[in-house]
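Our working data are protein records whose layout never changes between entries. An example says more than a description, so a record of this kind follows.
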Amino acid sequence: MRSVAALALLGTAALYLATAGLPFFSESYSHLAAAHARTFADCFDPERIPLRPGQHVWFWVFARTGATPPVARLPGFLAHAASCVLVFRLARLLGCRPGPAAAAAAVFLAYPNVQSLVWVAAVGWPWRVLFSLAALCALLSPRGPARGALWLGGFLLALACNQGGVVLPGVGAVLVVARDGTKAWRGLARDPWFAASVVLAGAYVLYLGWLRPPAVHAPVQGAALANNLARAAVALAPADLRVPVLDLLRGERPWPGIAALAALGAGAVAWWWRAPWAVRGLLLAIPLELAPAVAVTGFVPRYAYLASAFFAVALVLAWQGTAARRARVPVATAIALLAAAWVRDTVADVGEYRRAGAAVRAVVAQARALAAGASDDATFVMVDAPTLEGAERDVPVFDWALPEALAWHGVPGRWQAVATAAPRWLRGVEHVAPGALEERLRGVRWVRYRAPAD
């Protein structure tokens, strides 16, 4: 356990040192601005959108203490390090020996979770993963006086950090039954703590989906759902595999991409069919965990954070359960290659965020130069500030909150964001056709964003 904790701290510290000094991005600024105007009790308002009291509490603390980006990122990184230790514990509870369980923690640590840690707006996500893992470890532990309370408390805290925690009772039931057999259903049915979590999860879905106006979490449909399913299907694959498959699906002839997805699906089914029951449970837990993000939002790889923990444990259990010694070598090699590819993706993601940080600083500098000496009532327009960056267009820069960002950096004036080429579904900018831009800018002072030199 100590070696796992040391590895988790070293790996997390290396990532923290590489990214801590980057500026805030996107919605982080709007959350900080909202937190300044709200009380601590407002964090728990059931009408608050999004309904994430854990996230709102963190931003209330950041706003009241004047936290800088390195300080605001620290809680998420600490939660991530603790999650690595809990992955070791989860693996042990599912039958891993100490060495393979430590390997599972190392594989989980390798997964590219950069966005969940660097993007402070997602501060609730690493804490949701931490509380989810703690709850699952409690549920799978031998029965004791505090077991039920720890399970229910972990579930409620995970749910408070992010709505995705609602699937935790289903994931917990699958893992318990996979490890202990079908008779374990009876024990879960008689467990008042588990029953309470199921009832609360059902009430939460009912409230969020139907009772609270407006209905924010409406299911995605049609092409958006198909896109989400495709992204989720390859979310755990390295970028060198994931990106080409998705590019094929976006082409005029998507059949090669569909064939690639079908091959991956067939491989997963074959693995599930031949795997021990504990591995089967983990493989079933992955789509359960990803389902909320697929159903109600635009899916991005960071939503596979907790799923990567299940996948890491499943891989190591599969290696441990391989009877033939000769077969263990290629399995171990495949796991090592996957972990190495994930580390490479992590390095690439850090580079993308560092470039995005340079873009934020350039926007602030260009806005400050235009607004120098102006009053706070003056109106300015920033044209074509960066919105979504990165190879997969999933690094949020100013898809939201450009006015709040400039105010946070002390730039005077009332700022408006105008975009001529940003995705139309972005709601944080005003979309203007290039031919209508001259009319839109008439009578106001404006600046067009200029990307910094590499």
About this structure: The beta strands are 379-383, 388-389, 395-396, 414-419, 430-431, 445-448. The chain is about 65% helix and 5% strand.
